Amino acid sequence: MHSRAEVTSERASWGLRLAALAAIIFLHFPIAIIALYAFNTEERTYQFPPPGLTLKWFGELTRRTDFWQSLGMSLQVALVATLVALILGTLTAAAIYRSSFFGKEAISLLVILPIALPGIVTGIALRSGINTLDLDFSFWTIVVGHATFCIVTVYNNVVARLRRTAYSQIEASMDLGATSFQTLRYVVLPNIATSLLAGGMLAFALSFDEVIVTTFTSGTQQQTLPIWMLGQLTRPRDRPVTNVAALVVIAITFVPILLAYRFTQEAAE
Fold first, then answer.
1. Which ranges of the chain have pLDDT less than 50?
2. Domains of the chain
3. Contact 174, 108 (CB under 8 A)
4. Hey, how many other C-beta atoms are within 10 angstroms of the C-beta on 149?
5. Where are the alpha helices (DSSP H) in 99-224?
6. What are phi and psi of 40, to 5 degrees?
7. pLDDT tens column, 207-235
8. Alpha-carbon distance 57 to 75, whole Å?
């Protein structure tokens, strides 16, 4: 016979499994709907099941120059913001990890605050700051806006990895006559490489599909892919094309998120 504790544990286990399954279905069901209606033959109707399936909307999307321009803008912004995040996030993580000074915890909180705040708060703050400095809204203001939260992803990954790295390795390298650059190249970077890759890929994915901060930091001539898609939703005839574009965003962001997860798992082992 099972003890009461074992029965309770089994019930809790099945309950948690059902709750997890329900959460997964809730999160992924809208994605399945988008994928289904990207093949819908009708432009305006969303009846279920779809009256027919077609691939013509994929061809329509490839002929849209505004789509390619927006996609190129999103890729450029994401790449530059990720590069900025890798540099500043890594340097910040190294400074926080290695140094001990008054206000260290407060600075650490300020670093991670942009990703904890609602996007609209960050967007309004950035727009106010840009207006105060009397700067024109451009490609670079979008990059700055994205970098504020991309830095956090790199910082969190790198600082967690540094805390699991024995500082004695760095000391041993220096004692054996290695220069600071050699120690960085042969000791520090190999230890944090997977964390850098994970943080960078996650930062790229977050930047690529960002909407709210982009809305507040972009000018009239800059339109990233998510902003383009948001505008297309107001045009009923373009909704199937928008669904296809959403599949493109899912495909582009899914790969770096999956790789970031794998690298994070490897770094944790």
1. 1, 5-9
2. 64-268 (1.10.3720.10)
3. no
4. 23
5. 104-116, 119-132, 139-163, 167-175, 180-183, 189-208, 212-217
6. -70, 135
7. 888 888 898 888 777 788 888 888 777 77
8. 22
